[in-house]
Write a structure and sequence with these properties.
Number of domains: 2
Helix content: 25-40%
Structural class: alpha+beta
Radius of gyration: 20 Å
Order of helices and strands: HEEHHEEHHEHEEHEE
Strand order of the largest sheet: 1-6-7-5-9-8
Distance between the termini: 18 Å
């Protein structure tokens, strides 16, 4: 049965190997904040805290939030957020039940920092914020057409992926050429955090493959 499913996936992929391209996605800054629920009020405050962390990290100045104009800009965090998720915490009773992990549009945040005179207009910093790259990855654990759809859907939604082109399929794996809005290391960090795909660090190196991933089951 597994062999039959793999063959069905291979047939599906071969039929869809035409280039898949999406609009260029912006690079992002990631911020986190503790939160006790997924309510609108808690989310609003957590997004502001997460953006404040980003602002402090980008400016290198922990006192910058004392400025009223900076605090006002951070209070509009929902203008800059691209996506967010919740990660459940475990441990001591005094630890918040969850952590909100938010990704903010780096270009929009840089413009905000520039407007506030906080160095967002520095050309070197802007260049570091966006380091587009190309990578070829092998994604395993694709058992059927639903798994294939999960992989393609994840890549389409990922803010770091500008385009993805399936190259070939074999057994339960798929070789994909990625155009990224960041470098491969930052992309893999984001993949590990979101847990749809996992990095297979023990997989043997294959020439022409930059990273080996596996679909979480």
């Amino acid at each position: 049965m597994r062999t039959l499913l793999a063959r069905n996936v291979l047939g599906l992929v071969l039929a869809l190997l035409a280039p898949l391209a999406w609009a260029a996605a912006p690079a992002t800054y990631t911020g986190t904040a503790p939160v006790n629920s997924q309510s609108d009020d808690d989310r609003t405050g957590a997004l502001q805290t997460a953006l404040a962390d980003v602002v402090i990290a980008q400016t290198g100045d922990s006192s910058v939030m004392a400025r009223p104009d900076v605090a006002k800009a951070v209070g509009q965090a929902e203008r800059y957020v691209l996506q967010y998720r919740y990660k459940r915490n475990s441990g001591a009773d005094d630890v918040a039940r969850m952590t909100l992990v938010a990704q903010f549009d780096s270009a929009a945040v840089d413009k905000m920092l520039s407007r506030l005179g906080l160095g967002g207009s520095n050309d070197d910093q802007a260049a570091l914020a966006e380091t587009p790259s190309e990578a070829t990855v092998w994604i395993g654990g694709i058992r059927d057409a639903n798994d294939y759809a999960r992989v393609i859907g994840y890549l389409a939604r990922n803010n770091f992926v500008r385009s993805a082109q399936p190259i070939r399929a074999h057994a339960d794996g798929l070789l994909v050429k990625l155009s990224l809005a960041t470098d491969l290391a930052h992309f893999l960090d984001a993949v590990g955090m979101e847990r749809t795909l996992g990095v297979n660090a023990t997989a043997p190196h294959v020439d022409g493959v930059d990273a080996t991933l596996a679909l979480a089951q």
